[in-house]
Specification:
The protein has 460 residues and is of the alpha/beta class. It is built from 15 helices and 15 strands. Helices cover 41% and strands 15% of the residues. Strands 3-2-1-4-5-6-7 form a 7-stranded parallel β-sheet, with helices on both faces.
Amino acid sequence: SSADHLATMVQIFQLGTNNWQVEGGGFAPGSGILHEAHHNAYNKLPGTKSFSVWPLPPKLTHQPAPGRTDYRVFKLEHDIPICESVSPVSNFRWHSMSEPDFEKYRKRLADFCFEYMEAAEKETGKPFNIFIAHHAFLNALVGNDVMQRRKAAGKPPCQLCVFVHGTALKMYVHEKGGKSPAEYPMRFLPIMEKERIFAKDSGIVSRIFAISAQQVDAFKEIFAEFPDDRVTVSPNGIDFDTFHAPDPPMSRDQVLAELEHVPYDGAPTAIPSGYDYMVTFVGKFANWKRLDSLLYAAAGYEKTIADKGKKVCTIIVGSGPDEAIKLYQDLALKELGLKHCYFLGAQKQPTLAKLYAVSSIGVFPSKAEPFGLVFVECMACQCPVIGANSGGPKDFVSDAVGCLVPEPGSYEPADVKILAKDLDKTITQALLDDWKGKKGAACLQLARDRFGVATQVSRL
């Protein structure tokens, strides 16, 4: 009967911090992609319905398609506020918002969510069971505001869960450390503590989700007394409908012919054909991603491979502030004089999948990557991976799928050079020993077994 159906149905509300990757939605950062993937995966599960809200800055245009009531966009008059100063999508920091504006934003978002939840419950005839706030900051506060208001209105209880992501935790570390009080004054951590969002006996948050054990450690460093039995580690899932080798297959030359090298100081140029090997980096241009270490390594392996009568190209996908783009392009093309290094700018997921599929190796040398979604996306396209032995990738990168070189400890110039030497040696080995041919199948297998979004959300 329909009453039984309603009783077994789980209804979830998700409040995101970043835009999704949709037409008119612009490029989505990691937490936006994760939120969208989870939303869609929940809605494919039997007896599960997800409704979502995510912020839309004025520079992006997006309207949900007619008839789609499963998400709404929260329109902003400014960029999406961010916790840290490096972001490919925004330079507007929470710390630069005045106190009255912060209060106003919080109230407007809580009202928006409360009203949307009312409308959704009218539509389905079913109350919400779970409210998932992405990031351990404003959305957790807003989630609690909404829960209190619903309680006062006599609604059935709904569990508040928080999906913990790296940037908010880094913001609290900066506040607590007090090293740059002008940039990160002790402002938001005291709010979280005063309102007891993660206090051990407040019962406000039923559970936190984190994408790796490292993220849990980072969370516990700030909110030490949050109970361990309410922590779930949930490795990131990826969408295998997007990340797979192209069908029908495409050659390296065909994929590269669709793309261009985009110099900061000139018109885009075509990428030559005929490369024997291809090394690919994907990531935002932030110092902790350590793109510079790969560029130094490329100066070595370009020459080694040329001495063997072959050609290798290094493909750099990603973006960042203008000064970062200039910095890395100048290092690669002027200072190091790399002959076969191409900067493609930011690219959408289907293009990334094609690039991974024709790459010899994917190289992501971040310092303490919180999870390492790029590693998994690359493996899903049957391409082995190389990274540094720190952060999330330690949980799943084994010899069967690639290699993690020693972690030198920082992104200071001396450590970057040490890392570059190890990368050069390992990348050269990966190319000459045909890791792509030998490890490709194991890469896909690992990605499938451990990192499907459907697997992830079912477990959650």
